[in-house]
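Long-time lurker. I teach an intro course on protein structure, and each term I like to show students one example going from raw sequence to a predicted 3D structure in token notation. This year I'd like something fresh instead of my usual example. Would anyone be willing to generate the tokens for the chain below so I can use it in lecture? Attribution to the forum is fine with me.
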Amino acid sequence: MEQDKVSLRELLRADLERQRLLFNASPITSRTKKILSVFSPRFAPILLYRLAYKSNNSGLKTLARLFSLLNFTIFGIEIAVACKIGPGLFFPHTQGTVIGAVSIGDNAVIYQGVTIGAKDLDFTFDIDHRPVVGHNVVIGAGAKILGGLTLGNNVIVAANSVLLMSVPADVTVAGIPAKIVKQRTTQS
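-- Reply from a regular --
Happy to contribute to a lecture. Here you go:
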């Protein structure tokens, strides 16, 4: 799903559904559940990121930076306002996470302390020096994904790994530097 073709409302709904906040069994009403879920420390950072991204793409760069600064100050997560992230994003925890990828696909799970970005100082957000992350990717706590590399779909990056090379779909990578430790086969 291309983020730029999806409304902010649809993106946020997909993010909420991914977190099972809309449909879990609870004695409170659905409307109340939705309102309370906005303040969840797992969803509020996503909301702030989505507002920053939409503001940035609408030419409201100062407002975008304000949303980004709030995210950093309150939740300890820094996400580049130019990074495209598909629906279904989930952060089990946010502290110490830095995301400066070109794009991240649908249904990403990103744990705390992750860094996704350039290998070198890159204040201009040069897309040739930043990662592109596929769909259904899980990035373990403390993992570092650095440089102009590509992660295929359904990749698992083990905790505390340092990934410096592109990897194909359906693999698990681990280590420093990270290497493929498991290849999964897809059933047709």
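Some talking points for your students: The two ends are 22 Å apart (CA to CA). The chain has a mean pLDDT of 88.
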